[in-house]
Structure formats: structure tokens, C-alpha cells
Amino acid sequence: MTNQRIAVIPGDGIGPEVARVGVRILEKLASKHGLGLSFEWFDFGADRFLRDGTILPAGFMETLRRDYAAIYFGAVGDPRVPSNEHAKGILLAMRFELDLYINLRPCLLFDDRLSPLKGKGRRELQFTVLRENTEGLYTGTGGTFKKGTPDEVAQEVEVNTRKGVERIIEAAFTFARTAGLRKVCMADKANVLLHGHGLWRRVFAEVSRRYDGIAAKAMYVDALAMDLIRAPEQYQVIVTNNLFGDIVTDLGAALTGGLGIAASGNIHPGRVSLFEPVHGSAPDIAGQGKANPLAMALSGAMMLEHLGHGAAARELNAAVEAQVREGAHTPDLVTQLGGPAATTEQVGQELLARLQG
Ligand code: ATP
User: Fold this and answer.
1) What is the CATH classification number for the domain harbouring 206?
2) Are residues 86 and 2 in the same domain?
3) Residue of 105, 285, 290, 330 to test ligand 1 pocket, by largest number of atoms within 8 Å of CB
4) Is the domain of 46 the same as that of 177?
């Protein structure tokens, strides 16, 4: 069995609390399924930045590319670093420099009681969003002019490349085909943003012709936002740009139980990729044992799947689902599911116990 090295970056706030639980669970699965995974911890985050100025050491990206199979990431962000420069230098740098162009976010409801929508339960809330993760309005292209004066001009330029648009749309259709799904929706604002989103429209039409048997629908993102509340069952796979993806996936998280159980992958197929919970470092609850570790665990399941360990991933997903339906909950889920509140560690222990053997 070849060894797959996992770089664990727990980060700030609740990141280390949920990462501890996540790694313990993955270690158990690795030993049970004979997966040959090894976990190596890195202390990048606010403490390290404030101590010695390190954001990421020189050459770290190259090391990740060369030596690691995946990155298991907690969260970054700390009130002691108001500029957030360390967080940008860690997470955004990895997304861009490792070219992790697919932000994959499943929005799957585990329990009807978590649905905020009347009459919509597990059967209706089952969609996955692929958000473009390296272009759009997030490249920092633009600038300000006459800053601080009444004549100030501020511009952010949306970057859409043919290559970038095509590969994320292609990824959405490939994901649908692999998962046996039959519908892909692309969300844009092509009625207003004629150039960039016109490109998305053209490429979507072109790529969809290569996927027989998958229904392709292009729609405006405002219409999609309404429809996801009104008729979420119409959606299986949604592909969209960086900004709209940010918003649509938060909507998806709210529809399926909240940030405590929302997982994501930042993926470049065939290359080192990064798996992290959707939530941030949540400084308001850090150090109190209130953080829900299930988003981190589910991100671990996505990582296992990506590394080719489907059986272990399925076992972990099933254990999390059972935990949501029958187990103890951190305060974020108690509001919706009832029962006394459990700590991060208690939920982690129960989850661990659900993994047989
Ligand atoms: P970012 O800008 O990095 O997304 P943020 O502070 O805006 O960070 P989060 O850190 O995700 O957002 O936290 C938003 C709120 O959601 C927090 O105040 C916290 O109460 C709650 N929250 C986030 N993650 C969890 C979790 N794992 N368990 C319980 N509550 C959580």
C-alpha cells in the first residue's frame, strides 16, 4: 500500500478543535480499511504569524505539490489580525497557486427536521454546487483612484477566461455523470454582464452537447435564488462563478442544517487538493467546546473519496448521518433538533464509536 501524506493545517479559532476530531476519525478509518494515510500537522495561522511573521514559508507550495496527496484544513481568521492578511496569504494563496479551480460543495439534507422550508425534506434537498474558485471577482484585478476624496473611483474587474470557464463547466458535467445525476444548471447574469457571462453561456451550450442524457439549463442567478427556496428538488448539480457560488453555497448551507455541517473541497483533479469545512474560525465560540465537528468530518469524507477510498468515505458519511439523526449535538443543531447540548469532543467520541471495528 503506497503511503498518502496528508498535510493538516488546523489554523485559528475553532479550526484546531474540529481538526483534532476530524483527524482522529480519519486515522481510525485508515487503520480499519488499511489505507496507508499519514497525517502531518502544520502550525500556520494567527499565532505563528504574530509570533514570527510567518504566513507560509518559502517553498511550501512546492512541497505540497511534490510530497502531499491532500490538505486537510480547519479555518483561518483571528480578531488579533484585523487585516486578515495571514488568512489571505494561507487559504487564498493555496486556492490560487495550487490552481484549485473546483470548489465542490454538497448541499444534502441529512434529516427533515433541519429543513427550514415547509414541505421540503431529504428527498427535495439534494444538490451539489461547483463554484469556480480561481477567477471572477476574486483575482484582485482593479484599483482605486483619488482614494479618500469625494471623486474616488473604485473598480473590481471580473476575470473570465475561456479556459477557466470551460474547465469548471466540464467538471460539473463530469461530476453529474460520475454520480449518475441527470441535471446540470448553470447560473449567471448574462442579461446584464454581456461579455463575461456571455462567454459562460456559449461555453455551457457547447460543453453540454458533449453530455448526452444530462439536461442542461442556463439561468439567471436571481431566478435560481428564488427557485432554490420554492422548488429545490429541481436541482441536482449547479455550476456558477466565484461570487455567485459564494452566495449560493451559503444559501445551500442554510437549507441543509447550517455551517456546522457544511463541507467543501477545493479541487484540481489529479493534483494535491484541499478539503475544509465551509465555516470560518468562528472566534465567538472558540475555546468553549461548542464547535460542531461534523463539517470537518464530512470534509474528511470528501477527501477520502477524492483519494480513491470510496468505501471509507461512504462509511464516514453514513456515520455522520446517523449522528445527526440519533446522536448528541452541539448547540448549533440543538436549536433545531432538541436535546441537551454536547461538546465538540463528545460529538467526536460518539462519531468515532459509530465506526465499527
Ligand atoms: P469567515 O469570514 O471566515 O467565513 P465568519 O466569522 O464570517 O468567518 P464563521 O467563522 O463561519 O463566519 O462563523 C459564523 C457563525 O457561525 C459563528 O458566529 C458561529 O457561531 C457559527 N459557526 C460557524 N462554524 C460553526 C461550527 N462548526 N459549529 C457551530 N457554530 C458554528
Assistant:
1) 3.40.718.10
2) yes
3) 285
4) no
pLDDT digits (tens, 9 = 90+) for 136-159: 999 999 999 999 999 999 999 999
Taking the C-alpha atoms of residue 90 and residue 175, their distance in angstroms, rounded to an integer, is: 28
The pLDDT of residue 1 is above 70: no
| Spatial contact of 236 and 127, defined as CB atoms under 8 Å apart | yes
> Does the beta carbon of 285 lie inside 6 Å of ligand 1?
yes
Asked if residue 120 has its Cβ within 6 Å of ligand 1, the reply is no
Q: What is the DSSP letter of 89?
A: I
Which of 240, 262, 284 lies at the terminal end of a domain, its last residue? Answer: 262
Is 47 annotated in the active site?
A: no
Looking at 243, 262, 281, the residue that finishes a domain is 262
* Residue 280 CB coordination number (10 Å): 19
pLDDT of residue 2: 73
pLDDT of residue 357: 66
Residue 121 sits in the same domain as residue 52: no
Residue of 217, 213, 215 lying closest to 201 (CA atoms) = 217
Do 110 and 258 fall within a single domain?
yes
**Overall average pLDDT of the 266-284 stretch:** 97
The mean pLDDT value for 254-261 works out to 96
Instruction: Share the mean pLDDT of the chain.
Output: 96
Query: Looking at the structure, do residues 89 and 138 belong to the same domain, yes or no?
Result: no
Give 54-79 pLDDT, tens digit per residue. 999 999 999 999 999 999 999 999 99
Distance 259 CA to ligand 1 centre (A): 7
- Tell me the three state secondary structure of residue 69: coil
Range of the domain at 70: 1-101+268-357
Task: State the total domains in the chain.
Answer: 2
> Considering the entire predicted model, what is its pTM?
0.95
Please enumerate in sequence order all residues whose Cβ is within 8 A of that of 142, keeping only pairs 6 or more positions apart, or say none. Answer: 154, 155, 156, 157
If asked whether residues 108 and 48 sit together in one domain, one would say: no
